[in-house]
Amino acid sequence: MPHEPAPQPADELDAEAVRTWSSLALAALDRAREDIDAINVYPVADADTGTNLYLTAESADRELAAAFGDATRTAAAPSLPEAVRAFAHGALIGARGNSGTILAQLLRGVADVLGAEPGERAPGPMLAQALTRAAEEAYRAVAHPVEGTMLTVATAAARAAGAAAGTAADVARAAYDGARAALAETPGQLAALGRAGVVDAGGCGVVAVLGALWQALSGQEPAPEPVRGRAVPVPQPPQPCDAQDQGGPAYEVIYLLEATEAAVATLRTRLDGLGDSLVVVGGEGLWNVHVHVDDPGAAVEAGVVAGRPYRIRITHFGDERRRARTERVQRAVVAVVPGEGLAVLCGDAGATTVLARPGEAPAAAALADAIHRAHAREVVVLPNDSEWRAAAAAAAEAARADGVRVAVIPTRSAVQGLAALAVHDGDATFDEDVVAMTAAAGATRYGELAVAERQSFTSAGICQAGDVLGLIDGDVAVIGSGLPETAEAVLARMLGSGGELVTLVLGPEVPDALAARLEAYVQHGHLAVDTVTYRGGRYSAPLLIGVE
Asked: Whose CA is closest to 241, among 466, 45, 48, 502?
């Protein structure tokens, strides 16, 4: 559960006010996300708008917290421009779904104004200008804006803020009241909402965020948000349907993109011809792209032509709707996997996976999303890397606040995760299952082969760029010149203390001949030891070794 600080009234905008706003907005969206998910019918009834808004806000809050953490180390508090830019950047890189992408652009619009040097501007008019810019930027980001959505709610808030006079708190209150009034009108503006008898789900998120802004500036708690069972009467939430029933595209594609403005302009045109719900937000070389299509490959290829797409996320709406329709399963496993082949392998074993790419920092939001997608009452998390353990713990804490029972098994390598997954028993009690999986992981020694990028000191001596490093249980144990010889040396050391099963996970560039050579090496020297081999796929290390 996000921490909710006691709001301190502030008549002027500063970095601390932005931090309080962020924390309160995250807490408000956390409280409301299940209700918002339940009334999500537009543009697709996939029951995830509340969750997408929450995950976007979580990413924004995490980036803002990092800015304050950096300031603590330098003994200088961040300025208002620095804080608000960090807030908007965090939302941009973590935006989820249609609603989260639009929220990120709203925050970018706010940052465009508040991120400039304040000069002689009074806080109230400056905030009104920021909210106006936010609504304008959000409209420009959406290829085909539709009224009765969060765009309408944001515009009404900006209009009310522009007409207000007084302090920043007065302007925030006017924006909040204007948003609430506009939200209540959305069922009459959008046919899909009217048929379902619900207000717009994304608009509910805008109201929650603006309520948090007013609370941060005034110290007063806003009225209950107009969500299901609250200020606006709403009948039973609509039943999700298949994409074909709605006549819309079958896939949602989201990715971050490094590209020029000219390339993005061409990309917008190309994606607009492929599908609908196109939203492209960002600027200054970094963009978040969201679109609904029937051909996700073409959408990703368009991004490749435009620049460098990464953090690519493709979701089939039918899968999401089936999860929304069904009851939670009793137990699930969520595993971080350093390779696409491992993702398929663990997925086939029933795990929900999070792909860890080299160079990308661990993200609690990605694991929290995976736990949500697992749709289970009990979840076992396999971080499979010591660097992911903190993120796993944070995601587990958030899930526990939602009533999910979560255990994080401290696996430090994918081969330990595979060993744990092999003994997973959904019919056992939760505690029995966790104990068995933990024991299997703990009984598995792990090794890895990597190529040194530069000269450096290691626990096995000095290595040169291009040397093959053999790591055992996280420490460099062997430095070699070739992959086969180093792999055999690592295996010899790992099997020196015994073992019954060797697991080999080969990277994408490693030939099958290496696996055959290592299997023969094990059979020749250790007749009672079995060997299994898997392909790690793209993003995996050259070789992972597990000995049980």
From this structure: 45
